[in-house]
Amino acid sequence: MTDEDNARQFKSWLEGNSDKHEEIQRVYCHEHLLRLGNGKKSFSSMPIGKRIRMHEITGLSFLQVEGEVSPRELDMEKIRKGEQPRVMIMRRIEYDCISVGDVVSKLGVGTSSFNRYMNSESIEPSLVSKIEDGLTRFYSSTPENSKPDGLDSGRPWYEQFKEWLVSNRDNIAVIQQVTKVYSKDALLNFCKGSKDITSIPEGKRIRLHEITGLSFFELDGHHPLELDMEKIINGQQPRVLLARRITYDGFTTSTIAKEVGLTPDDVYRYAYDRTKNMSQERRTKIESALGNYFRKSSELQGNVKTSSLPLSKLGQSSVVVRPIEYAQRNTGSVIDALAEVQKNLATITSRIEGSAVALELLAFEKPTLEQRISIVCTAINVLATQTEYFKNRSQEEREALAKAIDVKDWGYVVSVLGRIDQPSSFQTYDRAFNRPSRRSQ
Question: Fewer CB atoms near the end CB (10 Å): N or C, the chain?
Answer without folding.
Answer: C
